[in-house]
Amino acid sequence: MTYSTSPPDGGLVLAAESGALADIENAINSVFDPISEGFSDIVFGKITVFGVTFPWIVAWLVIAAAVFTVVFGFVQFRAFKLSIDLVRGKYTDPKEPGEINHFQALASALSGTVGLGNIAGVGVAVTIGGAGATFWMIVCGLLGMATKFVECTLGVKYREIAADGTVSGGPMHYLRKGIPERIPGAFGAVLGKVLAVLAAVMILFFAIAGGNMFQANQTFAQLRDVTGGDTGWLGSDGAALVFGILLAVIIGAVIIGGIKSIGAVTSRLVPAMAVIYVTACLIVIGVNIDSVPTAVGEIVSGAFTPEAGFGGMIGVLIVGFQRAAFSNEAGLGSAPIAHSAVRTKHPATEGLVALLEPFIDTVIVCTMTALTIVIAKTQFWVDAQQQVLAGGETPDGVTVTSESFATVLPWFPYVLTLAVAMFAISTIITWGYYGQRAWLFLFGKGKTSERIYNVVFCLFTVVGSVLTLGSVLNFADAVLFALALFNIIGLYIMVPVVKRELASYREKLRTGEVRKFEKV
């Protein structure tokens, strides 16, 4: 996932406007600033443990992940092979209800999480927390796999399938229907409806602001930077407008086709962008292969005996956990929207597929970024660490990674720019769908309602390309993470439902009721 400001990823630089556009932006931000600051202070409020201060929402997410890991008997490890088999289509009956296969559902969800958080966020993590933060990012990613399993199983369990075969799922559905099942009576019904509406509002707001506007803005900023700021006769504002319109046309063409179209695109885009980025990391690592043992040693030793000044072991642990939690979205309730569209009649199957998401996002992609930075050990990174230790500002995380790429070839940062652009576009596509599901839940289903949303979403793609609206984006980040509070409460309440679904599916596997199919 990508973010707008320092709470999640730190140091990200937004495109700046001038003239009339700057005046418009300043006017909007001046109105939104107090709202944004107040709400962000609550959601990203700090608590102190053993002298280390960190956002309470991180503890909320990590504790839930640890609880679900224990309750489900370390399902992320015991069922890992089965998860891979499900993604490959070995147990997928193409005639089962749903719109997309397991691989497409996984790719669609991953396209919403794999982004600048894996690049900029990791750069910040290993600058603030040192190499040891990488170890704790991996641990958090492994724990988060259990949370994904729980929420995505519920997403399929309580999804709604329309007469035309289209699927609606996500926290707004399993909170509304699942909580009253577990808490009978008026209280359960009211609680479920209130949490469902709040979830839909939060998802819709972030989809338009953080999942759309910010991605468009960052993509243009990266392209402008790589061209040296030369925007020709159009000027910066004109070039941003043209770029925004072209991007909106591309995004609109995909999201209008629904989850089937999104799944078809992301199932190709996500592997492509992952291969490009991971290959680039591997090249940097390969060139510095002699440094690998030392780097791995630094990552492990730094996790338990960090250098003085990084806040001790607890400080490094918190930095790693924070960046991982902000990257893989485990517990936020967004991913179940995509996973709910899968073709299956066994909810637990998609929960098992979904647990691979934090593994790919955090354990693989984030670790590759961290290893690249630690191995390259650029002077920029070393100086940045000293700057942080001295109480200075944290540098742009993208720059930390880019400098590491440049140790191989001067033009290698262009590869990073391509990856950033692909990550941002895939995020817009997926969050366009998430927002659409939330919109239809709030304002009613129908072609007209769907068309209105698509137009609104694409218009904000253009707006995001020319305006940064920093305070609006700060508020969007806080809104999304506030969703984790309500979502995880619902997950705790519905744990017995997930346990029954998992036991039922395992029994069907044991008795042969679920049979193997050829790869879909």
Automatic annotation (TrEMBL):
Keywords: Cell membrane, Membrane, Symport, Transmembrane, Transmembrane helix, Transport. InterPro entries: Na/Ala_symport (IPR001463). GO terms for cellular component: plasma membrane. One of its GO terms (molecular function) is amino acid:sodium symporter activity. Gene3D superfamilies: Amino acid/polyamine transporter I. NCBIfam families: agcS (TIGR00835). Belongs to the alanine or glycine:cation symporter (AGCS) (TC 2.A.25) family. This is Alanine or glycine:cation symporter, AGCS family. It comes from Saccharopolyspora shandongensis.
